[in-house]
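Reopening this ticket.

The earlier resolution said the output was attached, but the attachment link was broken on my side. Pasting everything inline this time so it's all in one place.
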Amino acid sequence: MASQSRIEWTEASWNPVTGCTKISAGCLNCYAERMARRLQAMKHPNYADGFEVSLHSHALDIPLGWSRPKMVFVNSMSDLFHKDVPLDFIQKVFAVMSDAHWHTFQVLTKRADRLLDLAPNLPWPKNVWMGVSVESREYLSRIDHLREVPAQTRFISFEPLLEDLGEVDLRGIDWAIVGGESGPGARPMRPEWAVNLRDRCVDQGVPFFFKQWGGVNKKRSGRQLEGRTWSEYPAVQHAAPRQLAS
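Inline output:
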């Protein structure tokens, strides 16, 4: 399954895996779970089992058919490093990303421990950006795991940002995304939490992308932080990001 993405920091999504299970506080109001239930009700074949982890071998080669370079979010509807995704399937996903060298692939996981365990068994082409999600201080160790992964570009998604993270160490990190939670039951993000991360990025020379304030109506809430739009990307890009309105 692949589609144009509404996520502000990417262009397209590619889902050779769908489904997941909750692992930490940021998963409470999972948008992917809501969407999967909706697609299941619409009889979409990839969601016959709802939000159960499902592998879709038929979707593996989809990026090879896109001739124009894209930024591609891998598994927006799952987590590639979920325990129920076998290593050999993850290797197939990485092989496609390596072959489709004209795209930039953005892989994001909350399962940084398994990522670190499997990293030696995976190729790490330059067009694969590896990221971890960090929503609260409890999960700052995910950044330490990420630093040990031999990806050329490493990034952190601080979304949904649930508390102030203090003096975050961004050594070895190439990009930071910050955003509040959106949708039903969204937990509020305080401005000073986002400003702190912005300041840490500026001080440590890390490109900063402010995705959204969130809330039930995220479009109305907007994505300006202290009067400006932050849409920075890592200096080395393998596919030009779409231009975002400021």
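Reporter confirms the inline version is readable. The chain has one domain: 9-229. The longest helix spans residues 191-204.
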